[in-house]
Amino acid sequence: MVRESAPIVEYTVEWGPHMETIQIVLDKALLLAADRAARRSRQNRSALIRDALREHLRRLEVAAQEERDRQGYRKQTQPQDEALAWEREAAWPAE
């Protein structure tokens, strides 16, 4: 009988002069989920949280850029016939 062993995950601590140590508060369920995700992705908890925060900040920036674009387009008036011309271009061809 062959017994499978649990995968080995090596944890390293990334730290450099550009890093700061902080303290955050997480509820137990979120902490356990973060630890499981860190093990699955073979990184330590800090790296997982850094990556998640970077992704969240990137999404916030994209959303802010999209909102700025929407506001800019709202300020411009567009002739009705121009909009209709673009709608015809965007329509799927009849089959």
Task: Give a structural overview.
By secondary structure, this protein is mostly helical. It has a domain at 28-86. 58% of the residues lie in helices and 0% in strands. It has 3 helices and no strands. It has helices spanning 28-40, 45-75, 80-90. The longest helix is centred in the middle third of the chain and has 31 residues, at 45-75.
Describe the secondary structure blueprint for this structure.
Layout: H1 28-40, H2 45-75, H3 80-90
Mean pLDDT: 84
DSSP E strands, number: 0
What integer value in Å does the Rg equal?
A: 24 Å
The poorly predicted ranges are none
Helix content: 55-70%
Distance between the termini: 61 Å
Count of DSSP H/I helices: 3
Structural class: mainly alpha
The main sheet comes to:
none
Strand content: under 5%
Shape: elongated
Features:
0% strand, mainly alpha, 95 residues
Brief digest:
This protein is mostly helical. Helix 1 packs across helix 2 (45-75).
